[in-house]
Design brief:
The chain is an all-alpha fold and 238 residues long. 61% of the residues lie in helices and 0% in strands.
């Protein structure tokens, strides 16, 4: 298997650049491995008809279209999750880039022992927590922009991002940013995964590696804290 530097991925920057996306997609075709415990799935003309793990198997077998489909299938969700955690579109895109790079790096080792999306979100989650810890060590607070094009309000109102979840949070304004930013990472992540990404409790538990009951209690606590934060900030109760 080629090294990371040989693939040109080590210092790749996401930044939403089409050229960088094409570079990542192109290198996906280098892999020549596949699962040993399943048969190579029959190639369907429309890649979107394949399951996640079928796409992984095809990518391991050298089909770059399969890895392209995986990126397109989850890119938006991962970027939005990361952005809700770090409140910077640029940093979120970098973290999303690294998440896909790591999936690619260990592509030949992946086995369908869990949902592919759970694995991908877990990687993104670990990277965001590392980012937050590093930001704290550097003395740089996590910031957000109320004028940023892809802010929380627009994301929650985006029809492709579970509008039913967005409606439950009520009227979203700039104080939601600050209210969420006041939550601890462990409470913020479960609230974002539940209310924005629309994941079920069991999936969230797998991602954050804790019991389902713990997830429920953290989400309940996060909602209460967010309401309190909004009241302190002068906002209406959610």
């Amino acid at each position: 298997m080629p090294s990371e530097s040989e693939l040109g991925l080590k210092n790749a920057q996401y930044r939403g650049s089409k050229s960088h996306k094409r570079e990542l997609i192109h290198h996906a075709g280098v892999q020549q491995h596949r699962f040993r415990d399943i048969h190579r799935p029959k190639v369907i003309a429309n890649m979107s008809d394949h399951s996640d793990w079928d796409l992984v198997a095809l990518a391991q077998d050298g089909d770059s279209r399969a890895f392209t489909e995986l990126i397109q299938r989850y890119e938006r969700q991962i970027v939005h999750f990361c952005q809700r955690m770090v409140y910077s579109r640029e940093d979120a895109e970098d973290i999303a880039q690294e998440s896909f790079v790591r999936i690619f790096r260990y592509l030949d080792r992946l086995k369908p022992s869990a949902k592919f999306s759970t694995l991908l979100f877990g990687i993104a989650r670990n990277l965001t927590l590392n980012f937050l810890r590093d930001s704290g060590r550097r003395g740089r607070g996590v910031t957000y922009s109320l004028t940023e094009e892809n802010n929380l309000e627009r994301s929650l109102q985006d029809e492709s991002l579970r509008p039913d979840r967005a409606a439950r949070l009520g009227e979203i304004d700039d104080m939601i940013f600050e209210g969420l930013n006041m939550l601890s990472p462990k409470h913020r992540e479960v609230l974002v995964l539940r209310e924005i990404n629309g994941l079920d409790y069991s999936t969230i538990a797998d991602i954050v590696k804790c019991r389902k009951g713990t997830v429920k209690s953290r989400i309940a606590r996060a909602r209460d804290q967010l309401r309190q934060n909004m009241e302190k900030l002068g906002g209406e109760e959610l």
